[in-house]
Amino acid sequence: MEGSLGFLFLTFLIIPLPHFFIFCTGHTHSQVRCIDTERRALLTFKQHLIDPSNRLSSWTADGDCCHWVGVVCHNLTAHVHQLHLRTFPPPVWDDSMTDEQYWAQEEAYERSWFGGNYFENTLIPSWIFGLRNLVSLDLSYNDFQGPILVDLQNMTSLRHLDLSENHFNSSIPNWLYSFSHIEFLNLGSNNLQGTISSAIGNLTSAISIDLSYNQLGGKLPRSLGNLCNLREIIVSYNKWSQEISEILESLSGCVSNRLEILDLSYSQLHGHLMDELGGTISSAIGNLTSAISIDLSGNELGGKLPRSLGNLCNLREIRLSSNKWSQEISEILESLSGCLSDRLEILDLSESQLHGHLLDELGVFKNLIQLSFQDNSISGPIPVSLANLPSLTYLDFSNNHINGTLPQNFGQLKNLVKLVLRNNSISSPLPVSFGNLSSLTYLELRNNSISGPRPVSFGNLSSLTYLDLGNNSISGPRPVSFGNLSSLTYLDFECF
């Protein structure tokens, strides 16, 4: 982080708030005074921070740390129980945002850091281990390196441990599996290696486990399926090299009743969800009745998607891109059109070797926000029913074989922010109703067979920042209304 500390946050509970900082007043209802050794430890910490906003001005040498901003002491013992100095993680790229919006958020995030170099290229400072009454320890988004220190094993009161976004490069230590009180464990985005022990089944209080973006391998232990309180399993971007059916079967225990988020994306998984005769290899995916999000993207999965996926009525997100489903797109949509039709918000089947035509059942998914079918072999026209998706903000059908005319009612998609239809065979003039897409910021229709004059109605797209209609057959003079596109940062000059 180039000589700066991303953030240090030790607390009882993470509470997401719409601000860059999570602070509390630190006042307690009792008259306890902070313990001197803990007060001095906090002052040592402050000395090595750059605090441009002077937010720690209450942290004075002769003050009571139980009344400092950001510090909460236990009402009875006076031990520091919570320490709130967190900034939010950096912004995550969203396909609906512009480059300017992303970099504005990135700049705001960087301004929110506490600066300093006390922790740069070093191990976790030893004074932290003196705060043994902490129930939550968050050291994420820093630059800690080396193994996960054994000193942590004495902090057995922890319920929340977040060491993500660092450079720890050891295996997961065995003592960590004995933290029976841990509820939230995040070791993601490090360089952890080795395998996961079956002893992970001892984390019986666990609600969320995130081991994503590491170098872990071997097999996911079956004991994960016995963690009855588990709501989130996020183990993406590792090297499991395992049959998907084996994993799903291991999750058929009590965890299947409560699991809400399952992320196994980009994990070198292989196999089919169904056998060659169409029967389900494992019923586990159909048993995940509480699932809200399933992500199996970026693996080597093939065959057909089981119809039982459509019976998971709580699903909001299905991400199955970059696999080898080799299935009719209409068959998939039909299987999902039951109880999910008014609940599904994100459907990503891009780069999945899908074929066939889009039919009218596409219009039944009334709450879809993001629809990604790019990089397949889908053919035929875009159905008129697509305009019945009022919540749609992101639509990408690029790199397919879609032909025919664009629906004249396309302008009904008033919330559409990004539309990408490049590299298809779409023909005919552009619909006049395109001018009603008032939220549109990104429009790419390059490499089609669109003809006719430049649409005057495009001048109504005041939010548009990116416009590419290149390599079509659009002709005629540029309409005067195009002068209203004051937000444009990219314009394909081949057409305009």
TrEMBL record:
Residues 36-73 form the Leucine-rich repeat-containing N-terminal plant-type domain. It comes from the Eukaryota. Residues 1-26 form the signal peptide. Gene3D superfamilies: Ribonuclease Inhibitor (3.80.10.10). SUPFAM superfamilies: L domain-like, RNI-like. It is found in: Cell membrane; Membrane. It holds the Pfam family LRR_1. Keywords: Glycoprotein, Leucine-rich repeat, Membrane, Receptor, Repeat, Signal, Transmembrane, Transmembrane helix. One of its GO terms (cellular component) is plasma membrane. It is a single-pass membrane protein; Single-pass type I membrane protein. This is Leucine-rich repeat-containing N-terminal plant-type domain-containing protein. It comes from Castanea mollissima (Chinese chestnut).
